[in-house]
Batch of 2 targets.
Target 1
Amino acid sequence: MMRFLTSLLLGLTLLTAPVYAQNGPLRLELDQGIIEPLPFAVPSFVPDSPAAAQYAQDITRVVAADLTGTGLFREISSDAFISRVSSFEAPLQFADWKAINAEALVTGAVNVSGNRLTVRFRVWDVFSGQELGNGLQFAGTTDGWRRMAHKVADQVYSRVTGEGGYFDSRVAFVSESGPKNQRLKRLAIMDYDGANVQYLTDSAAIVLAPRFSPTGDRLLYTSYETGQPRIYVLDVDRVRRTELNTPGGTMSFSPRFSPDGRSIVYSLIQGGNTDLWKMDLASGQSVRLTNTPAIETAPSYSPDGSQIVFESDRSGTPQLYIMPANGGEATRISFGQGRYGTPVWSPRGDLIAFTKQNKGRFHIGVMRTDGSEERLLTSSFLDEGPTWSPNGRVIMFTRETQGASGRATLYSVDISGRNLRPVRTPDGGSDPSWGPLQN
Amino acid sequence: MNVLGKVVAVGALGILAACTSNDPSDLGGGFGNGANGGGLAAGSPSDPRSPAYFQQTVGDRVLFAVDQSTLTPQAQTVLQGQADWLLANPDFVANIEGHADEQGTREYNLALGARRANAAREYLISRGVAGNRLTTVSFGKERPIEICSTEECYSKNRRAVTVLTGSTLG
């Protein structure tokens, strides 16, 4: 008998199931330089009633889109299927799935009762005929169906790769419309795949660079609503914002949360000079972290909170530096040709993503935290502002096109440099901030 | 003719607001492109005491080289003219906007725009204008006036614009 681990989705709060006990032999090793995506089949999840039919179909499509969107998986079209899966409990004919070269198989069932939706699923290693992990079910309200699909896909990704997923996550960004010289900007939030866009501000004032808190409950951003760029913190659920009181300077920007969410690091301009400061959110007290005539901006904490990587032009051009989280001596880590900016520490702690400007082109790149093994992942007229997926495998960024009709679009790219793709948004998009996996 | 009429109309609104507000900053928010931005451009360009004269004849902006905030001799000449005008018209206050072209990250350009605005402000102060009449703001690369992606446009976008934001006349 298969045992089902059950997790309950109450409203949008989801209690995650215990980690599955064992792994089958099927394993996609992400660090081995994957060239060929892993072929998988996901027959439409089985609805247990006519009311569940549309949900079953939609959930199956989102699961498939999540997996293929990684560039690591290739979906086998249902046209090729030999077997049909008309019952979730019936034994599978693995030979039929082997025959069409499916290496992984995802089966599922959907139950709808009133506005309550339950999704059950299993992941199979076709060649061994073994289940990967245990069957699992997610339950919640019908309007949360996309999240449940993302949860299923995260489990599949995780069981096949051995790494955390990133599909049940949200991205905050700046929605852009209008020409370059009169661009209208609004803060917005959406699912990682561009669904469920919600606007958090109107376009009356320029807004820039939202940054998620570690738990995803708050956003820091910069707004010109007073006429000056200043930092605000916004409660995502209540869409309520508070201006943060920064000391003795009119302009503040480029804020980012500490990993414990209790303080922020940001840039403050005083007398035309930009330095880094840190603010304790409970007391509102700020302390200075840098004190140089150079520009210091774009700070980002290491995941353990002990260090800050930032950008400074103290050497004459913008370069990347790391200093202790309470300030002190900074060590330069970027030494390649060109100008480096907007460093962001990977959630895994191993890499720093950055923007590089060299010979008239912009690149998104990654390097180790000591500056070694620099790799450029993209190249265009203007790429900037990387943000990491929760598992540290994918980077989202802004790409702006050239000329009078130039337009900003969100893109994502795998840290291998493969799978560059636009992220669909209703209007233009810039300054993405990828939030954590949701609970 | 049409253009002139528009300038006068915007200017008239500005004067009205100046008379009803004790806070000159209420009139702020220009983007360094004159009437479009909401700064004062009041009066006739032929009246040397008018904001329109300041904007068009004295010159309200100075330009910078790539990634620079140092004032060129040409910029210093313009700023000297601005200082003379501000000293002769002590009732006006100004907000100096610093801008960058699109070559550079958003964050760096915000900081660079602040350097440029401050360079202009410091120069005006060195020529005798009281510091409390001069505020600054950086727009980074958020508000270019020219939208092509060539040096011809970039050179006009790398600027500090002195926007008259009000008159202290009560």
Target 2
Amino acid sequence: MAWKTDAPMVSLTDDSTNYRNEELWEREDLGGVTTENNPVPVLVVVLVFITIITAFLVTMPLWGQRPTAALYAPYVHSMDKPEVLAAKDDVEAMKLIVAMNKGTPNDGLLERHPVTMDDLRMIRDQVTALEAKGVDMRDYSVVGDRVVIANFEGNFRPDGTRMRQQPWWDKGFTIDVFYLSNFLLWVFIVIKRLPPVTWQPRR
Amino acid sequence: MLKYLMARNEDIPPGSAAVYWGYSSIVWFVIGTGLGAFNAAKLAFPDFVTGLEFLSFGHMRQVHVMAVIFGWISMAFGMTMMYMTPMLGNTKLWSEKLGVWNAFLWNVGLSLGLTVLWWGMNSGREYSDFPWFIDLYVLCFMTIPLGINVWMTIIHRRTQGIYITNWFFGAGTFMVSIVLLVGNLPEYFHLTGLTEAYLTWWNAHNILGLWITPVGAAIGYYTIPKITGNPLYSHRLGHLHFWSIVVFYSTPASHHLMSAPLPEWLKSFASVEGVLILVPAIAFVSNILMTMQGKWNMFVENLEVKFTVTGCLMAIPLNMQGGFQQTRAINWYIHGTGWIVAHAHLALLGFSTFVEVGAVYFGLQTIMRKKLWSLTLGNLHFWFLLVGFTTYWVSMTIAGLIQGAGKIYEVPYIDVVIAEHPYMIARWLGGSLVFMGNCVWLFNMWMTARAGTVIPAGRMAHELAYER
């Protein structure tokens, strides 16, 4: 079981141990089933790394996060504008509100989370009450007809309140990096403890 | 078989337990898919069989799911373990008697469990629907004895190395008992709320991830090299597969509850790990397909290879769906729709079932030393299963997308029901085809035991020509 580290990409096991392992590999009959010593194909390695990158990119909270109260506060403010009040129906009123609030960094999120005038009426009083309290509207999520404190536990502010905003990177991703690094390291060691891929069992 | 329950271990012919497990699994497959087809008929035709409480969908759904998971899939796993584990260790099963008793108690326990579900006594927790006393029975008399037999056989092997299949068998039997023990804690200790929800899905996720998926793959690792005669392409890919499934699949149960008030970091963690289940899938599929090199004719000519490779190929869409459907971006759309039902059937009726069917065909012929009675019926079984499953999967996937759209755009529920009605009929047709195929299979295996051509010593079943 001796180790050799001068050529880690070839083998992490010393030559005599590798030789004994090769002998055993060739001699042993596992119920008529045998195994080759082929390398992990390059394409598989590439696919694994593409999967890892994709896993982080596709799970970032940019996609699929709940809308915050801050997103709809400008909509609520626009509800009392004369042109909106003069609209012939709710559909036209909503179109006007959307048009009035275009051109902000939230355009994409608003497009993904469209609301109707009825939705706005249900959250209007709650949004107004929160604004009156002077809270950070980004700390609140809109869940159907309710405006609730968001389900995040961020850092504390100087005033003692806690940030409730989804970061683009949270500790879940940090744990993933730790997990993945360990996985890649240990699988690399396990694989490289085998005889070098230049050797194939003769049968 | 029952006579062996009271026989001495040394008087029980080797392979008896495997035969008992194998035939039990086929019978449960017929029952399970029959129940599924019945349930599908109730969804397609709401007036079909009404007025009887125990035949209502709310009672029957759990009976179908548990019959398939614990009856068909797990008993077929038990069957493969009873013959593959000793063969790969060049030894005998540690205890043939324990194997026979285990199969007997498995059948008794499952019958009891399904009966109480039928009466309407259930835990209300999906995939762990049995009440707590049945859960304890499952653990003590079903999974733990199976694990003991597998582990002791591996420990008493007459080889120095352990082949990949036995890594998975050993780990799978260990992990499934841990999963059932921890996953059912809410029932033993009356845990409620979010804890119950999380443990329910931790249990459901890991029954799939640490039992059905790895053991299904393990079977493929045996069947393909054994029948084709090719060495497994890469021992290293086996390592990549084994460790990635243990590391990545064991953790992310919270991605089943993306809209629940679980900590968001836990969802982020789970979601990344959820995509990473593609890693074991890539390793498994590439290893099996590379092992097929030079023997692709057997995919057409050999029934067992046909089933196994088809199951292996199904692992590709299965893991592509599974990896991505749990992300926040997709989950909000398809959560709680027929899409998930389609995906679950792709895992259980697609990937896992096809691989297992191949192994049960191969194992029963090998152990009984009887050639399959009819190749025609075998092929009929394959096509009934494939066409039936595909019809089911495609129709439910479309129905799921319709339901997702209905959910997001707040379409009145009854309009969604009307829109998906044709797909419910297609689902019933597909399920019925699967059920009929399994009836054919049971008949074929019954005839194989009674009138199959005897396989001469030293030959393998697939080396002999079919007579029918």
